[in-house]
Amino acid sequence: MKETPSAKLVSSANHTASPFGTQFCDHMTLVRFADGRWSEVETLPVGPLPLHPASHVLHYGSSCFEGMKAFRMQNGGVRIFRLDRHVERFQRSAELLCLPLPPADIVEAMIRQLVDLCLDDIPEAPGALYLRPALIGTEENIGAAGAPSAQAMLYVLASPVGDYFSRGGHGLTILIEDQELRSTPGFGQAKAGGNYASALRHVVKARKEHGADQVLFCPNGDVQETGASNFFLINDSQLLTKPLDASFLHGVTRDSVITLARDLNYDVIERDFTVAEVMDWIQTGEAALSGTAAVLSGVGSFVHKGATYKVGDGSTGPNTRKLSDALRALQSGRTEDRFGWLS
Ligand SMILES: Cc1ncc(COP(=O)(O)O)c(C=O)c1O
User: Fold this and answer.
1) Which pLDDT value is given to residue 163?
2) For 119-136, what is the mean pLDDT?
3) Of 23, 140, 240, 244, whose CA is between 20 and 30 Å from 226?
4) Reported confidence tier of residue 185, pLDDT bands at 50, 70, 90
5) Is the beta carbon of 249 within 6 A of some atom in ligand 1?
6) Is 343 part of a structural domain of the chain?
7) Is residue 195 in a domain?
8) Is the model's pLDDT at 42 over the cut of 90?
9) Protein residue whose Cα sits closest to atom 15 of ligand 1
10) Residue 214 CB–ligand 1 contact under 6 Å
11) Taking the CB of residue 308, how many other CB atoms lie within 10 A of it?
């Protein structure tokens, strides 16, 4: 297993000692698209990729990716969480970027093959093997600003990870950005590198100026998502989250939390809501972020227009913890897979 030179110890409590995403299994799987067809799946050592400097991705940003986890089950074995949903979203992102559409059976085979190769590197839950398929346009043509890349490369990396947001129950600090957009109204649903690049300056500024962990994008007061997760308001009986539209990423964890919440008799409300409602809700309720890395992490405080507003006592609230525990238990096989999410 390899580590990047910058990898450093962050917490002895984490199941892997390196920061999320900096440690890689030795192998990756890879296919290429050319002349209208996909090549056979190759297994390669993880290392530099040969890319022509004129590659479409390097100039016109033709890249998308996915992020999912394989878990070590309590009773042995390894399962991937909601693989079909992640593959579907990967295809949707490819479609939105006019990249060649990777067939679901090829992507699934690449992921499963890699998990089999990395079995010994998978930590015990709540650690996991994070799986990162990436699709990039490789046509060598700097004149193709207005044309899709006719060639592409798809590869899958695997990275053993600990508990990304584990902060001993301490809530996250979130800056509310009520003017800027993370992406565009139609492209937020793509898991495209460009969306992260366009949000980055806001996240960097929030961290530097306010010590915030993330930014909640709320253009014109419309509460959407953070730079890397979906957003929920939670109380003893309800969950409130934005309904699916093209402006934000349709989180697989978001869907899982909603399903589990309904199962636990919460009333799930999917409707648009405003920053004013968030401020009102946190007088008595909880707020949380959902994502493959974050699972369901509590918000401890919001920074808004220069002032800080504490949520509860600043730690993860009891309903957030209850839902997060239910999801983690299912992911690691401690409770029955009653929705058929593990494969
Ligand atoms: C912008 C953004 N929104 C939401 C999510 C949550 O998606 P998921 O639950 O599928 O990981 C992520 C994380 O991948 C993300 O990057």
Assistant:
1) 80
2) 96
3) 23
4) very high
5) yes
6) no
7) yes
8) yes
9) 228
10) no
11) 14
